[in-house]
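Posting here for the record, re: calcium ion.
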Amino acid sequence: MRILLVEDDPMIGESVVDGLTAEGYAVDWVQDGNSALIALRTTPFSLVILDLGLPGKDGIGVLKEARSQRIHVPVLVTTARDTVADRVQGLDAGADDYLIKPYDLDELYARIRALQRRATGRSEPTITRGRLVIKPETREVTFNDEAVLLSSKEYALLVALAERPGVVLSRGQLEEKLYNWDSTIGSNAIEVHIHHLRKKLSDDAIKTVRGVGYLLET
Ligand code: CA
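Prediction output follows.
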């Protein structure tokens, strides 16, 4: 899952990037409003963490402009401003959730999981697809009731496929979900991860649609 962090405070930015990366997310970080809008127009993020107080265009301006351009990505607003009026303004501008600074990283992760759950139309925390069960809270995966140990990229790839059951995702789409701008991606990186997933789950767990991409068999 690919996240855009919009944060002008370098200390907070670095700690959030480190934390999210350790949690297995692909993260891109920009530090002003205009860069955020360019990023949102060019990259299909799964979620945005948006600070409100930014140099240049502020967070509310970014949010309004993104929504007016029909960019529907879930947005979690973070801010040190803590008045009811600020929160109402943020939510009315199109934010999906709100976190007051300073915030705890564990709470940030929990809110990300909740937003992702809502964005993919789940009400229960567990993702169940036939023999496959994924628990995002602990990143535990079982297949045929047996625990499966996955690398963070394998896990991210499996979740990307499991969130869109029966939908074929192309190599390019999967790369965009797994890697940030700074990554050097080998031309067969996705194929290699798919190969490993099949070995750890079963050969028929992920189907190749020749010339198109991959889908999860449920
Ligand atoms: Ca700020």
